[in-house]
Write the structure tokens for this entry.
Amino acid sequence: MPVEIIVESETNLCYDNRDRKGGHDMTESDYDLLCRQLAALTDGVTEQVSDLANAASVLYHALDNVNWAGFYLLRGDTLVLGPFMGRPACVRIPLGKGVCGTAAVRRDTVVVPNVHRFPGHIACDAASRSEIVVPLTVDGDLYGVLDIDSPVPERFSETDRAGLEAFARTLERALSQAAASGGTAEPV
């Protein structure tokens, strides 16, 4: 069942996934809708932290069976916790460690059907059973990662992977535009 967009005003769009009871099968058109919502929410925004916070909220509220959605941002050789929705999380993850650090070093999406079988998995939330991490680059440089956890094993499909990668590209454009507009170049 598609995610419904509720238009509250021309610049304030909200997702309502109340009708998506129990299922977690997002379609390509559902992800297209998420990307359009993110583009509307980030249009003209000059603060990257605001873009990241809204992106985390969009995903957390639109995706079923997700217990954490957010960002780790590159600072030197460490990923540092950024805006997120969910339980408190690990603050620092070294590059190359855990799912987030691995995806960042590879600069490639990592889908983990069962986190207990991922060597070196860093358990921030004991309820998490599967995870997807999508690297973010801005103007060619690694910026950080989008991290989404689920309490359901094998939660993330190839459709989720493609949709979340498209969502990340939409966010990357917004982050680049925010920096170019003279706004905050990095989240605080």
About this structure: Helices lie at 28-42, 48-62, 98-106, 158-180.
